[in-house]
Amino acid sequence: MKVDLHTHSCVSDGTLSPSELVERAANHGVDMLALTDHDELSGLKEAARAAVQKGIRFIPGVEVSAVFGMDESIHIVGLGVDTGNKVLRSGLEKIRQGRALRAARMGKALAWLGIGDVYEGAKRFARNPELVNRAHFARYLVSKKVMPDIGTVFQHYLVPGKPGYVEHEWVSVNEAVSWIRAAGGIAVLAHPGRYRRLSSDDMSALLDTFIISGGEAIEVVSSAHGQEEISRFSGIARRLNLMASVGSDFHCERESRVDIGHCAPLPPGLEPVWSRLT
Ligand code: AMP
Ligand code: MN
Ligand code: MN
Ligand code: MN
How far away, in angstroms, is 33 Cα from ligand 4 center? Predict the structure, then answer.
């Protein structure tokens, strides 16, 4: 079975509409797809409808932005969430409100570049005005030829310690997991290999917090992971009895290293999270 449980549409920082995303998944032979936009559920209805037409099993999802420790931004994917749940909806709304303030501060922080109003420019790359994130800023700065590509923009301007980086007051890992569970979803620790600033003790503490909060799965296969990380997080999943998830984290054709449905297979001896989703 071909599974992809982590993807983005233009409702957050992907570029395809929810139905275009489902169509792409269908063309790639995906059997089960989750749409997991950042802090936003508004693309799920359209995607679910398109999935029925294409005969794909669709899992309503979300990727919640949280923080661990002082300033490590952690993403928690929720799978199989009830989109009408008030706890989840109001939590996500709170995050989106904070995003607008932060984006305005990012715009101010980047004003010295002298290319005009950077927040306004970034907004033109976002179809959802409530969800202007660093990816939209990066796309705008590339369009203005400030840097040749997205990765370089992040490296020079948008990561901690760089001039355009503004920390969001994200919610705690505990809150993010509790909202997902309140909405009947399974909480998945997204792309753990991306949290490179965490020491191995910090990673253990993060996993403890995640599990105590009710987190049940970890993304073992992700576009952010090479073979080494797949092995490392398979070991962690087995040791801590976490279910394993697989996701491309597809945003758009130009920027994504792994296309929808092109994820590596899950190593043996793991309990796939989709065994609980069917
Ligand atoms: P934000 O929610 O504003 O912190 O933005 C996070 C988003 O920026 C992620 O979901 C990715 O889509 C993108 N992103 C983060 N780091 C990088 C990077 N190093 N290169 C490219 N895109 C990145
Ligand atoms: Mn993103
Ligand atoms: Mn993420
Ligand atoms: Mn993602």
Answer: 14
Q: Mind listing the pLDDT tens digit for each residue in 79-108?
A: 999 999 999 999 999 999 999 999 999 999
**Residue 261 DSSP symbol:** T
Measured CA to CA, the distance from residue 166 to residue 159 in angstroms comes to 9
Q: Are 166 and 107 a contacting pair, CB within 8 Å?
A: no
Most ligand 1 atoms within 8 A of CB, residue of 132, 134, 171, 257 to mutate: 134
262: helix, strand or coil: coil
At 87 the pLDDT is 98
Task: Give strand pairing partners of 187.
Answer: 78
- Considering only the C-alpha atoms of the chain, give the largest distance between any 2 of them, rounded to a whole number of Å: 54
Of all protein residues, whose CA lies closest to atom 21 belonging to ligand 1?
151
Residue 42 phi/psi, 5° resolution? -75, -5
Question: What does the alpha-carbon distance between residue 277 and residue 58 come to, in Å, rounded to a whole number?
Answer: 10
Whether 134 is in the pocket of ligand 1, judged by its Cβ within 6 Å, is yes
- The verdict on the CB of residue 154 being under 6 Å from ligand 1 is yes
The model's pTM? 0.98
C-alpha dist (Å) from residue 202 to 82, 174, 235: 32, 15, 17
